[in-house]
Design brief:
By secondary structure, the protein is α+β, with helices and mostly antiparallel strands. Helices cover 35% and strands 28% of the residues. The chain is built from three helices and five strands, in the order H-E-E-E-E-E-H-H. Strands 1-2-3-4-5 form a five-stranded antiparallel beta sheet, with helices on both faces. A hairpin with a 5-residue loop joins strand 4 and strand 5.
Length: 183
């Protein structure tokens, strides 16, 4: 009986290792494609190039956070701003976004890269803060706009209905991204 259990365990482990080996590269390629497509989206759907990519360490709530900043140029080499990968803890788990800023720090757009928020509620962050959404942040500059929800945070942004925790987490990720480009 022990020999059978060891054999089954060994075969299962070998199969899992094989599947991991075979899927590792496609998963990585898909993540890179998501970032590339996201950069185009958050920079106003214009043709852009990533001039350089930097990692910026900032301290938030006494915790060290590493953000990735993609410095963006147009096809002629003129600097157009940057796209920043920012991550925070939402209601349902990790919330990772990509936000685009022009050279003055104005928000050009954003996309959600990863979320575990409640479908139908917190998942509305995908559209709620977009241009035309009730809590629109596109076109606002964090230097002159208080990025917090209007109730309780004394901010200027309307929270997602019944999803204040997600709204706060989302706006915190935007603030982190802005802090990273200031640094």
């Amino acid at each position: 009986m022990t020999l059978v259990m060891l054999s089954v365990s060994f075969i299962t482990a070998a199969l899992l290792a094989f599947v991991n080996y075979k899927t590792e590269k496609p998963i990585m390629e898909q993540k890179e494609k998501a970032i590339t497509d996201g950069i185009i989206e958050v920079m106003g759907k214009q043709k852009v190039n990533v001039k350089s990519t930097d990692t910026v360490n900032i301290t938030i709530d006494n915790k060290s956070q590493t953000l990735i900043v993609h410095n963006i140029t147009d096809t002629k080499g003129t600097e157009k701003g940057c796209a920043v990968e920012s991550e925070t803890q939402g209601f349902g788990g990790k919330l990772k976004i990509l936000v685009g800023f022009d050279n003055e720090g104005t928000i050009l757009g954003y996309t959600i890269l990863e979320t575990s928020e409640t479908p139908g509620l917190g998942a509305k962050a995908d559209t709620w803060f977009q241009k035309g959404g009730k809590g629109c942040i596109v076109g606002k500059n964090p230097k002159s706009t208080r990025l917090g929800v209007t109730k309780g945070d004394e901010g200027d942004i309307d929270a997602i209905t019944a999803s204040t925790i997600t709204s706060r987490a989302f706006l915190k990720a935007i603030k982190q991204a802005y802090d990273a480009i200031k640094k």
